[in-house]
């Protein structure tokens, strides 16, 4: 039978997992409403984060490789909610790496005819997206640390 202290800590961890999930999701959703990157020509619809989310995988041989942060982030959320913290930590870490890989590219396809434009800067959508992945990673690290401390105390 579990003691009151153990039940309390389990409830706290569950609440913390939920807070991290919700915060990361909110930042991700906000990112989709923003400009992901700034290009020349500036009127490229592909620079809108929601369009980049839908079509980014099409350019997987270039900057689109960064798009793979999205399924990894979603997987990390699922693992986090299902208390698979170590796997969530790994998934969110790789997600952050994929997000950061976007900074390594200086050109991106602007349309379906694969006309390329220079990436001049990064919009708020990109930074919200990256922050969403980082929150999932930091949250997984924090929960993993707290779980280890609970196990050491018992």
Please tell me about this protein's structure.
The protein has one domain. The two termini are 13 Å apart. The chain is built from five helices and three strands, in the order αβαααββα. The protein is elongated, with a radius of gyration of 18 Å. It has helices at 4-31, 49-55, 69-81, 85-101, 124-153; strands spanning 37-40, 107-109, 116-122. A hairpin with a 6-residue loop joins β2 and β3 (116-122).
In short:
The chain contains 5 helices and 3 strands, in the order αβαααββα.
Secondary-structure map:
Layout: H1 4-31, E1 37-40, H2 49-55, H3 69-81, H4 85-101, E2 107-109, E3 116-122, H5 124-153
Antiparallel strand pairs: 1-3, 2-3
Helix pairs in contact: 1-5, 3-4, 3-5, 4-5
- Pick out the low-confidence regions: none
User: What structural class is derived from the secondary structure elements?
Assistant: mainly alpha
Helix content: 55-70%
The outline comes out as elongated
> Which series of helices and strands comes N to C?
HEHHHEEH
Strand order of the largest sheet: 1-3-2
Distance between the termini: 13 Å
Mean pLDDT: 86
Number of helices: 5
Give the number of DSSP strands: 3
Main pleated sheet: 3 strands, antiparallel
- What is the gyration radius calculated from CA atoms? 18 Å
Task: Tally the structural domains.
Answer: 1
Core attributes:
single chain, 154 residues, mainly alpha, three-stranded antiparallel beta sheet, 5 helices, 62% helix, elongated, transmembrane, transmembrane helix, membrane
